[in-house]
């Protein structure tokens, strides 16, 4: 099969307004790509951020999916510009999520 670039979707924690001291969890859902693997980097402004990227799994249709998440204090979330960057070398694609629900 020819290489296929991933689709990338933003996810944000919480249905209620978070309390001032609670963290906000941002996530990127990365799905529908072939072959594995992708590289995910998170930024606040120009600084890369620690993150958690989950193991890739193969879907029933043979394409792959994963997700990556970043936890940040609410105050920083309000002030910072957050970005999830997904690179898929096989398809030469680079996708960025810079808009988050509720911003």
Q: What fraction of residues sit in β-strands?
A: over 45%
Low-confidence stretches: none
Question: Major sheet, described briefly?
Answer: 5 strands, antiparallel
CATH topology: Immunoglobulin-like
**How many structural units, i.e. domains?**
1
**What number is the mean pLDDT?**
90
Radius of gyration, taken over Cα atoms and rounded to an integer in Å: 14 Å
Protein name: Ig-like domain-containing protein
InterPro entries: Ig-like_dom (IPR007110), Ig-like_dom_sf (IPR036179), Ig-like_fold (IPR013783), Ig/MHC_CS (IPR003006), Ig_C1-set (IPR003597), Immune_Resp_Modulators (IPR050380)
Domain Ig-like: 6-98
Pfam family, one: C1-set
Q: What can you tell me about this protein's structure?
A:
- By secondary structure, the protein is mainly β.
- It has a single domain (7-97), classed as Immunoglobulins (Immunoglobulin-like), CATH 2.60.40.
- 6% of the residues lie in helices and 50% in strands.
- Strands 1, 2, 5, 6 and 7 form a 5-stranded antiparallel β-sheet that branches.
- β8 and β9 form a beta hairpin.
- The longest helix has 6 residues, at 74-79.
- It is elongated.
- The mean pLDDT is 90.
- It comes from Gorilla gorilla gorilla (Western lowland gorilla).
- It holds the Pfam family C1-set.
- Keywords: Disulfide bond, Immunoglobulin domain.
- Residues 6-98 form the Ig-like domain.
């Amino acid at each position: 099969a020819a290489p296929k670039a991933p689709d990338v979707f933003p996810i944000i924690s919480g249905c209620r307004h978070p309390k001032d001291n609670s963290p906000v969890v941002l996530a990127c859902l990365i799905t529908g790509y072939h072959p594995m693997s992708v590289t995910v980097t998170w930024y606040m402004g120009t600084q890369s951020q620690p993150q958690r990227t989950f193991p890739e799994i193969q879907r029933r249709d043979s394409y792959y999916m994963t997700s990556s998440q970043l936890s940040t204090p609410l105050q920083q979330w309000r002030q910072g510009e957050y970005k999830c960057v997904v690179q898929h070398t096989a398809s030469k694609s680079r996708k960025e999520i810079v808009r988050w629900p509720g911003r």
